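step 4 of 6: structure.
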Amino acid sequence: MNISPDTKVYGIIGYPLTHSLSPIMHNMAFKEKRINGVYLYFPCKYVEGVVAGMKSLSIRGLSVTIPHKEKICHYVDELDSLAKEIGAANTLINKEGFVIGYNTDAYGAISALKKKVNTIKGKNVLIIGAGGAARAIAFALKKEGAKLTISNRTIEKGLKLADNVDSKFCPLSHISENGYDIIVQTTSVGMYPDTDKSPVSKNIFKKGMIVMDIIYNPVETNFLKTAKKCGCITISGIEMFIYQGAKQFELWTGKDAPIDLMKKTVLNIIGR
Ligand code: NAP
């Protein structure tokens, strides 16, 4: 790509930013769609000056990752209604000096689930974890009409999320198979390099259940491998990652995202 004065600048903020796959995924998408854009790493410890910096440097869009998704909401000019409800934004758009925050994690998770589930309405869904990603997914699933149970290691955090989305709560140490149709694993347990770990035992799985892990490295976690052995239908975190990125691409460029290419690019890097 030739850098010119017209090249549109995008990027990702977070700290640390060592393992993000977003730059390679978005740069490949720009190339494929012939967009004069570049997506860069912006390791950033303090979030206070980010929105002002975006405006003064004409940065068109940013992905926001750990630990800034919540704090950034205090600095944008406007928050999309879902991001406001969740209390976290993972995407910023600079529309001629007016910066809007969105949450595409929620969209990513629902799109990934809908590849394997016809309707989410009325389904019993267990969400393992109560961190930032769990929060986005819980609000999105509630909107889809799911009956939710939240389970978390730290009880106060789990109870708070369960209260916010008007759902049941079960401590992580007490969960067992309980008529769930869908399980969504959102903790970081089992993520590279601790790939032999799982947050739960195989007793929670039942044949035919839909089981999604939002961890995308490795592509198939220990949790998903066990679910598959128990006869569950599994969904990798790669699916959510691609869909949340595709939605960002569409918000920034107004064009359809090259989803297959984005997925192929990410899978090549992770080594599958
Ligand atoms: P977070 O806000 O830090 O939340 C972490 C969650 O993991 C909390 O519920 C925490 O429980 C739980 N946890 C951590 N260590 C644990 C342990 N040893 N045992 C039991 N529970 C443990 O992080 P996040 O932003 O939600 O991200 C969570 C994971 O999702 C990460 O692996 C991230 O890469 C992945 N993610 C994937 C996508 C995607 O597109 N596929 C998008 C966003 C995030 P406590 O409350 O007890 O600490």
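step 5 of 6: annotate
 - The pocket of NAP is lined by residues 66, 105, 108, 129-134, 152-154, 157, 172, 186-189, 191, 199, 214-216, 237, 240-241, 244 (CB under 6 Å).
 - DSSP finds nine helices and twelve strands in the chain.
step 6 of 6: archive
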